Amino acid sequence: MRRLPPLGALRAFEAAARLESFKRAAAELAVTPTAISHQIRQLEAGLGFALFERQTRRVVLTAEGRDLFPALRGALDAMAEAVEAVRRRSVRRVATLSATVAFTAKLLVPRVARFRALNPGWDLRLHASDDPADLDGGTADAAIRYGLGHYRGLVAEPLLSDSFAPLCSPHLGLARPEGLAQVPLIHFEWGPIATRLNVPTWRAWAEAANRRDLDAEGGITFNDESSAMQAAVAGQGVALLSLALAAGELASGALVRPFGPELPGLRYHFVHPAGAGQRPAVAVLRRWVMIELAPHLSGAPAADGMADRGPVSGRSP
User: Fold this and answer.
1) Which CATH architecture has domain 7-90?
2) CA-wise closest residue to 187 among 132, 135, 227
3) CATH assignment, 94-296
4) Cβ-count burial of 93 within 10 angstroms (0-12 exposed, 13-18 middle, 19+ buried)?
5) Is the pLDDT assigned to residue 245 strictly greater than 90?
6) Do the Cβ atoms of 128 and 100 come closer than 8 Å?
7) Could you read off the pLDDT of 289-311 as tens digits, one per residue?
8) Averaged pLDDT score across all residues of the chain
9) pTM (2 d.p.)
10) Where along the chain do its domains lie?
């Protein structure tokens, strides 16, 4: 058990010793000089020795006061730093945006530095999941979803339209649709949503391209879009991929679009719960997303026959 004098008396002594004045100590601590003098006299009485020599215009530390002052100053400094650290953590502001794993990796992660530049004092948390985030339950403040824009209980603002096309590594040397017979087709699973919606597939592409001789079911299948894209970059075959998500690979030359046609997709939306548009976290996320994705905004209409694709590029019904 610690046996310490009252904290108020110790603070009065530290301030008076540091400033060499009861009057200046009183001003710093917002009390009267009489109160400072009273607290120090009580402290000296409890310790059993004097801490100051009272002179006409100043006070001077005794030998005991000089021994006590450095340790007490360090202890009070450490306490102040600890309190300030806790205070900073308690007021830390975090904005959470939910998106699918592929959208997060391809379109959000490369832009996170801009979020801090636009929103000083805010931390960004990216919730990457192919399952829809519970925005009402607090999983995230807002989300990016892909579909027709009709989400019950949510406000949806359009961001960018999507389309799909055959993409592959330039090292494959693929130039014409006839070459598809010599390279593997890369597929990825859309999940339960594919059972009830017209999602872009190699079979749909073959019909649009009038390539009914193409074995649209064979090749390599992945359970996620990101892996399919990586396989295409590695030259393992040709994949039917989102042009929005593959924009970086196309710009760098890691992927090329050897031929068409494109299959139209739907549109990505920034969504948040109805009535939450003025919440600070939603506002900073919206500002960041709109500025970063503004170059991609387009007015292309959504394709008929396709419905909401889940959270961002989520594959859940």
Assistant:
1) Orthogonal Bundle (1.10)
2) 227
3) 3.40.190.290
4) exposed
5) yes
6) yes
7) 999 886 554 433 333 333 344 43
8) 85
9) 0.64
10) 7-90, 94-296
